[in-house]
Design a protein that fits this description.
By secondary structure, the protein is α/β, with parallel strands linked by helices. The protein is built from 5 helices and 5 strands; from the N terminus they run βαβαβαβαβα. Helices cover about 45% and strands about 20% of the residues. Strand 4, helix 4 (about 85-95) and strand 5 (about 100) form a beta-alpha-beta unit. The N and C termini lie close together (about 10 Å).
Amino acid sequence: MRTVLIVEDEWAIADWLEVLLSESAFNVLVAGNGREALDILHRETPDLVLTDFMMPFIDGAGLIAAMREDERLRNIPVVVMTSLLENVVKDRAGRFHAYLRKPFREADLMKIIGEMFPE
């Protein structure tokens, strides 16, 4: 079973994603911001990080930068979810694997995940 770390400060969105991914046979970890995500990443190595971009404490750009500096975490795929335009995110976040503009459809998320992990 693959593990996804959801990093989202809006609990309604985090809960929706947790249910969606759990029902799709993923093990799900949840963090409310980048700092909590890094704490989890020191203990766990998920197969995918699905992160909001604008969050308190450590934002998506900071989380991605910290992951890319850590040899154990640098190759974990990251999907960025945000209302910001993709070019703004690219300028601030560097290397990530996919982008979802909020609000997004469940089908769009599942398509991206399906492309990353074809069964």
